[in-house]
């Protein structure tokens, strides 16, 4: 089991007298910058000049500078930019200001683990990764609580890197909930695997396969949509709150028997074998290489699939059915 740290393991003093540049003011950037500031830490937000977030950050009382100026002024640089542009921004606007003894940090390990960013040896490199979207990081902090987070030390030049990571985690409220120690490798590989095999790739294919099976058998697409997509949320909410057991307690006995007896026929030995293959492509760098090349070529395959998926029947039917659900936000 991983080691867990709480408030009493972390000391904000390690951040006193230091300035933290939070680069980006998106989901994580706004939450982390505001929480740190309210924890009494000196924060500067780094953005591009034409960023639509510039005014938002300033009117929230934060100091805002362009990225190179924020990096020059800071002792600790937290990179909360989209992962696929971090390598370029690092080379052009961060590295020139990464002087000896400074610290470079992330909330996701991808660019360090896959060598898209290779920091100099004479700086600290660490991660503090909240296990939740930014708005929850912010809301929990405001309520005097926090969300669990991961910390990881990649490079410890000053000998104080773990203390910095714990202090930062405290500054955003996460030691109130609990902080797990991991490595850049573990965080990156498990994150990619989860989204590919289960959360995004696995789930969307499962939904589509179920929907298609019903529609191909002559059932109404609307019925197929309710049964194979809409109801996912009801089930996931139960699992999220109380694990598989609570979900199975809440569903009917018939549903529970169908779960036990049919589930393993959907996720077969073959599927598990394929999952292992997906994991090894993550571990040996094949996936990262493929995704980097795809980006360099302006995403031809990505854009083609994206277009095809938008045109699926399940998406057309879903758009109409969701019009009938007044509780859903109309987000296009
Ligand atoms: P967002 O896409 O929400 O925000 C990115 C921010 O970067 C925006 O403020 C954007 O502002 C700014 N930005 C984009 N390009 C540039 C540029 N060239 N120069 C300066 N600023 C730029 O990102 P997230 O918060 O989702 O992700 C940030 C990091 O946090 C990633 O490493 C991600 O993996 C990690 N993470 C994210 C989680 C989440 O819940 N979203 C959870 C845990 C980790 P603008 O476009 O206005 O310039
Ligand atoms: Mg991810
Ligand atoms: Mg049913």
Mean pLDDT: 97
Q: Please give the CATH architecture of the largest domain.
A: 3-Layer(aba) Sandwich
The percent of residues in helical segments reads: 55-70%
CATH topology of the largest domain: Rossmann fold
Number of helices: 16
Main beta sheet strand tally, sense and closure: 9 strands, mixed
Please report the total strand number as a whole number.
Answer: 9
Q: Strand pairing plus helix content: what structural class?
A: alpha/beta
Question: Could you name the ranges where pLDDT drops below 50 across 5 or more consecutive residues?
Answer: none
Instruction: Tell me the Rg in angstroms.
Output: 22 Å
Order of helices and strands: EEHEHEHEHEHEHEHEHHHHHHHHH
EC number: 1.1.1.86
Organism: Desulfotruncus arcticus DSM 17038
Cofactor: Mg(2+)
Pfam families: KARI_C (PF01450), KARI_N (PF07991)
Describe this structure in words.
By secondary structure, the protein is α/β, with parallel strands linked by helices. It has two domains: 4-182, 3-Layer(aba) Sandwich (Rossmann fold), CATH 3.40.50.720; 191-323, no CATH class. It has 16 helices and nine strands. It has a nine-stranded mixed beta sheet. Helix 1 (27-38) packs parallel to helix 6 (134-142) and helix 9 (201-216) packs antiparallel against helix 10 (221-230). The model has no long low-confidence stretch (mean pLDDT 97). One magnesium ion (MG) binds at residues 191, 195. Belongs to the ketol-acid reductoisomerase family. Mg(2+) 1 binds at residues 191, 195.
